[in-house]
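Please predict the structure of the following assembly.
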Amino acid sequence: MSVRVFVPGDAASRSVGAEAVARAFAAAGVEVVRNGSRGLLWLEPLVEVETASGRIGFRNVRAADVAGLLAAGFAASHALAVGAVEALPWLRRQRRLTFARVGVDDPLSLAAYRAQGGLVGLAAARAMGPAAVVDAVVASGLRGRGGAGFPTGVKWRTVAGAVADQKYIVCNADEGDSGTFADRMLMEGDPFVLIEGMAIAGLAVGATQGVIYLRSEYPQAERVMRAALAVARAEGVLGGGFDIELRMGAGSYICGEETALLESLEGRRGVVRAKPPLPALAGLFGKPTVVNNVLSLAAVPWILAHGAEAYAALGTGRSRGTLVVQLAGNVKQGGLFELPFGISLREVVDGIGGGTRSGRPVRAVQVGGPLGAYLPASLLDTPLDYEALAGVGGMLGHGGIVVFDDTVDMAKQARFAFEFCAKESCGKCTPCRIGAVRGVEVMDRIMAGQAGEIAVLEDLAALMTDASLCAMGGLTPLPVLSALKHFPQDFGAGRVAWG
Amino acid sequence: MSAFAVWDEGEARALLAGMGRGQDKVLPMLQALQARYGFVHAAAVGLVAAAVNVSRAEVHGVVTFYHDFRTAPPPARVIRLCRAEACQAVGCEALVAEAARLGVAVDGPPAGGVAVETVYCLGNCALGPAALVGGELVGLLDADGLRALVAGA
């Protein structure tokens, strides 16, 4: 029997035993392809086998299961079988544009990338010319997926219009928000789409050099990205007027802020710069620079290959295209799901996620990372788009959703928000540097039963919101105040009863 | 036995000489030195400063700003335990208590050549609690799994 078996090489899949599974298949003489992950992370390692009727999946495979799977001839009646993978409801209800290829094939095969529509966008961009590319990205309605939601095409237009001897494309791959892993999965599962997106950006604005700033906490993404860049250079995708350098971060949350990232790339402490000047006009080494998130850049090849109208036709309101949801924390079926904007939090948490992993009721969800709001179960009908979340006092951020069950102590979560800010603040502005430390102290007093301190907390939060230089200090009050607003029983006098 | 080379100033100087002269090379240089020797030796600060023509204070500032850089040799085994929100939601703080019971306080001095250090997010948020050991991610970590990691199994 000659079969091809797919065992994901994605870090999340490896974290639950995929390496041992791949070795066991290889030892049995089976041809193993290391694909990316489909994003159905609770099924990992999700092993797939090619059959005449498509790819059949087997969930949570352990090395010890390999002999049995081979003996059974990968029968659909096997206890671990989940049936045809493409027909799984979690995949069928998605609309995968950016992640279309992730999990399908070997991420380092440029031939596979081409066979699945890769490099069509870059070819289209070359045919259209720079100005038309910028127009297409503007028309697509694509907004920055890193968190701020600034229109990507408008940023590109600014850089394209700047006159300079050198311009740069900087990819922000410093995905530090807890609850988010889409950048990592994309770089590990389809690195060429990011390379293609950056090459298109370079063509559009007239930049010859790209830089990927990748966080050091992602060693597997580093290995795949480095190998992919070498392949792209050898195959001539890079090198003809545009090249990309991979730079590693060194453990600093604030370096995900674009100006701190630029400081870090220039060899200094990751201290935030005051804006203006905008990085689009004076960015890396003082030159006009596009700084875009991984997902923003990786959305561009699809837009150029299929047209801006096709992308803009998806979504809702001013949130066009698809949203990459990352469902995490205490959730039964966690993973990555790409859908048009507009699905409600409840559909994601209960429908896709199947409720909590612990089986207890959902008490809170944090949307948008450590600087995002905590929302109570009563707000789960909020649609996931930029404006709707802002409307309930939250933010979409990078699309991460962290689920908590009813054992969570929201005062503790509020205290952690300050603690995190105190540890990761760059220290440039006083409201953030000092305010975060004072915030921890105030929360300690509140948790000790001093309800009168809540007024101090609100005052401090207002000051940090209004006077901080960047989103770190400016948004730390968001999780704090949302916890206080929606879960007042965990603060103040009622706190004593909580224990 | 250490996986790292013993500090050798001459060798370090030669290593830096091939890495360019711009200030933007400060992080790659420090990373290269730490990859080879396991930490940034006190003498390395001056070498990097000289290599890119900035003050030692500038380089010292970089070393102390970023969490990754060590100024002393690392223990034989470092377990980086995620303590960010998604892992909090699935009980990572119970693992912090478990580590203390095992005699390796998180962010405390190493014990028996093992250290457990806090990290905020490893990107394994749907399969937490997560840890990173020797460049490999560990998911769905429980008390038994942590005991095995501490024991070096």
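DSSP finds seven helices and four strands in chain B. Residues 9-65 of chain B form one domain.
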